UniProtKB/TrEMBL annotation, chains A, B:
Highest taxon of the lineage: Eukaryota
Keywords: Carbohydrate metabolism, NADP
Keyword Transmembrane helix: no
Domain NAD-dependent epimerase/dehydratase, residue spans: 6-211
Organism expressing this protein natively: Agaricus bisporus var. burnettii (strain JB137-S8 / ATCC MYA-4627 / FGSC 10392)
UniProt xrefs under InterPro entries: Epimerase_deHydtase, NAD(P)-bd_dom_sf
Record-given protein name: NAD-dependent epimerase/dehydratase domain-containing protein
Amino acid sequence: MSTETILITGSAGFLGSLVSISSASDDAGHPIRLLLTDVAEPNAPPNSQAKTLKVDLTDPGQIRQLFETAFGVPDTIYCMHGIMSRGAEDNFDLGLKINVDSVVSLLQAAREYGTRASKVIKFVFTSSLAVYGGPLPKIVTPSTIAIPQSAYGMEKLTCELYINEFTRRGFVDGRICRLPTIVVRPGPPAAATSSFLSAIIREPLSGQRATCPIGNSRDSPELNLAVWLASPATTIQNLVLIRTIPAHKFLPHTRVVCLPGFTVTIRDMLDALERIAGSQTLEMIDFKDDETNRRIVLSWPATFDSEYAMGLGLKLDLDGMDRVILDFMAMTKKQ
Amino acid sequence: MSTETILITGSAGFLGSLVSISSASDDAGHPIRLLLTDVAEPNAPPNSQAKTLKVDLTDPGQIRQLFETAFGVPDTIYCMHGIMSRGAEDNFDLGLKINVDSVVSLLQAAREYGTRASKVIKFVFTSSLAVYGGPLPKIVTPSTIAIPQSAYGMEKLTCELYINEFTRRGFVDGRICRLPTIVVRPGPPAAATSSFLSAIIREPLSGQRATCPIGNSRDSPELNLAVWLASPATTIQNLVLIRTIPAHKFLPHTRVVCLPGFTVTIRDMLDALERIAGSQTLEMIDFKDDETNRRIVLSWPATFDSEYAMGLGLKLDLDGMDRVILDFMAMTKKQ
């Protein structure tokens, strides 16, 4: 019987709910105790040993509740709450409050309750490639400088600094995952600049029109713009795996890990969709070049050296865009 | 008649008081209005147009007083207060409060009062080479990643992220100076790992014994350890200059500037002292290798590419250690 307790913030969100489901039991099938929290009360995965709590993490007093349940002090925290990129850009002060201040409060609580319970809590944090900006090398490595050009990127990087320092001092055992763009996200479009990357696959497959803001036609040279992607399944697998990696395997001076991904151009994505779903599906896409959107996407790094992440045992989408689309179709059919 | 107002925090400190003196008038000799603040009431430079205020910057309410004096909303803020490196390492929570939280509060106040007065306040910040850590290239450039390995370094880098983002959004006009180690500092030893670099020059020159924590004798190979230094005079000159650089001259994606310095080994420093003050002066130094101190100093970058900083018009100590020692002797004689 596992006595492990995992706290997941933002667990009503897309990735948060998938991590909740995947963390509901250990390798041997024993249930893991889940503390699931969000601004709205999240759902517990079926057959799970879960407590769900509606908590406002911008209030340090409410954060303390998470450490005082009958499940005791959690062994691992998945810190996955936050406002998305476009939301943080548009609501600057709210972004700082939710994407930085509440994470620092959570870290301080993890330090305090961890010390009291004589354990070093694992602190898994979802960061983003939005931390990068300015001139970048062709391939991003663990020694590439991150100079954010957005509120979201700056907020994620600030949290990374706190988590690294709290880890260095032994207050928590941090694991920072910089995520690729996740494709295909189900559901309605999210408040993220990257949300069209899911929409141009998801909408046509369900017979709905979608707008591609890169290029003005299927032949447009702008479609050669490359992006760095990972599937939801592989990302969740990696987020679950990273909790189990022994601390000494990480680099000694940082807990930042860029999760593995793969590079495709927008044209590659459309070609894959055509191969799988036929050319009539492609006709559901309107092309309307949005220079601002293109500029932002172009500022993101499109290729990373994943050697370090793979050396830690993290996984890669092996079959590129075709497999991502097929998996998405299988998942939506199942629901 | 200048109507410029400059606010200087930490102005009772060593660099803060020197910047206050150098900022008391403009190039034409007209007085500049100074708002000088520190935890203890600072001194005003002689013949200056200055208001001195004792303010606790950890209290956002007290910060507002600085923007509501008869001098009006300041045009430039020199944010120079803080706990030194060793102090921040030993008093972690106080370090976060003073070295991060109070800077963010000051930035928010600068944004608010600047907006109200329809001006973008220049925000000059003194950062440090302590932001660097982990494996480093032989020569640090503007694209070298900073991975702090100390509370102080992490705190400085966090403030840099805020200042860059506040600048990107047009809330303030940030200028971030990463300082080399400043040698020779006058006065009693400071709570910094680097303080011995001043003490091994300053103490022997005044006939007092000093301890060099690198190497066990004058012939020790450990003395070949290299450090990155700048004189107080050149540093102050650069801190004054950086306020006058037009905003468009900075890199578009970051306001971080590593101030120019020069590389010397500990042995070079002692050789210079011997040349200038004679071998009997060297006998005032006891060697007692402190492995921890040596490890920390060794983790700092010792050589930077100053091309960008020099291109901005910033100044370099041209005559190395000998000139630094002679200038220090001249300064102490004058007092």
